[in-house]
Amino acid sequence: MTRYKLELEPEEEFQIIAICCHEKDYRLCWKLNKACRLDLERVEPGELNPEVNSLYCYYADEDQTSYTLIANRNDEGWLMPEHKQVDYFFTLCDPQQKPINEVVEKIRSIKNVLAVYEMEMKDHKSREKLTIA
């Protein structure tokens, strides 16, 4: 009998920016909106990812890019315990896959942001935690 192995790939490719900042989520969101000219709004995570405690989203119609700010710390502990040094994950789902250096620099210029860097997550389960639909 022939066996087949099914490997699932994420439907959407997205880029992840790690943010280390001691600001409250709503204050960081306000500063991101100002610095990057976005309109992030708080949304309920829903049933698809109940592990997420704090979630802010924005969809830009002009370039079809969606932006999401996710807090790493939730009521039960960490969303991703392997990345305890990261306070927030900022994801960009950009169909054109533009370089995110400009976004990283804008975030780096925000007062009280301690560190910002682009993350590479090869692990499917880790990426799945950051997928919000």
- Strand composition percent: 25-35%
Show unreliable segments: none
- Distance linking N and C termini: 38 Å
- Class from secondary-structure proportions: alpha+beta
> Approximately how much helix is present in the residues?
10-25%
What is the CA-based Rg, rounded? Answer: 15 Å
Series of H and E elements: EHEEEEEEHEH
Count of DSSP helices?
Answer: 3
Number of domains: 1
Mean of residue pLDDT?
84
Largest sheet: 6 strands, antiparallel
Number of strands: 8
Strand order of the largest sheet: 2-3-4-7-1-8
Identify the overall geometry.
Answer: globular
Quickly describe the structure.
20% of the residues lie in helices and 29% in strands. The protein has helices at residues 25-36, 101-108, 124-129; strands spanning 15-21, 41-42, 55-60, 65-71, 73-74, 77-78, 88-93, 113-119.
